[in-house]
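Design a sequence for this backbone.
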């Protein structure tokens, strides 16, 4: 399916559209399947969206929150993706704590933590070891180097295709990340990217021929789901031709 690319004059318009799209997918998922599963992005760009979602009146008991990736730090750490989303959104709505599934970062060994989260996903989605769960919504960001989630260029995590969760590596710092096959199993993937420092990566990601190990976000091609790129003008300038 051809990706939907939308470029907005500024970040607030982008966030408004991201909210609209997310609310529509939540409503759709609950109508069709009785619940909605969302894998959240970390980084700075999605924070205003989470703050907007905190203002919404939604059937929170039917919404289940997971993460696409996590820095290997305690949730109390300012670097924590779960910590950020909890402060910006989840602490402000009546979502049952049992509906929130932060990636476990307590274990001494990140590989063990990845296996723990993998098992949690299998239990929640009722999938077996070699099956990949379908999230209703996956939110993703984009790094200037073309990484997404914690799938960084030239790292082993890019090749992992026999499990749901693996250990990412950012400059030697461990991360936990959903793997490419799980991300590509999603029903709806939404990239949020802002800033001129993302232009080069976007140019490569949308180019005819690019080695995806250089620009891992290019590996995100949903099997049957929808793919949207929501960009501000600074980031999206090179992609005007795709709109
Ligand atoms: C993380 C993210 C990562 C992020 C990009 C973009 O944990 O860092 O999940 O993939 O989305 O680095 O980050 P910004 O939104 O801050 O530019």
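Sequence:
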């Amino acid at each position: 399916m051809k990706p939907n690319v939308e470029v907005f004059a500024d970040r607030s318009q982008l966030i408004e559209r991201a909210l609209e799209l997310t609310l529509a997918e939540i409503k759709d998922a609950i109508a069709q399947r009785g619940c909605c599963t969302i894998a959240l992005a970390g980084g700075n760009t999605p924070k205003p969206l989470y703050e907007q979602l905190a203002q919404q009146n939604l059937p929170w008991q039917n919404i289940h929150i997971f993460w696409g990736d996590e820095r290997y730090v305690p949730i109390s750490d300012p670097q924590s993706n779960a910590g950020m989303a909890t402060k910006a959104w989840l602490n402000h709505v009546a979502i049952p704590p049992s509906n929130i599934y932060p990636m476990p970062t307590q274990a001494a060994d990140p590989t063990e933590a990845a296996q723990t989260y993998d098992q949690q996903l299998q239990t929640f989605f009722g999938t077996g070891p070699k099956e990949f769960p379908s999230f209703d919504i996956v939110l993703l960001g984009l790094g200037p180097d073309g990484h997404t989630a914690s799938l960084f260029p030239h790292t082993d995590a890019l090749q992992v295709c026999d499990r749901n969760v693996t250990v990412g590596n950012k400059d030697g710092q461990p991360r936990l990340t959903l793997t490419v096959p799980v991300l590509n199993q999603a029903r709806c993937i939404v990239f949020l990217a802002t800033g001129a420092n993302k232009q080069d990566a976007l140019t490569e990601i949308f180019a005819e021929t690019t080695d995806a190990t250089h620009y891992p976000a290019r590996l995100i091609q949903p099997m049957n789901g929808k793919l949207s790129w929501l960009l501000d003008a600074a980031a999206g300038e090179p992609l005007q031709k795709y709109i």
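Residues 64 and 98 are 9 Å apart (CA to CA).
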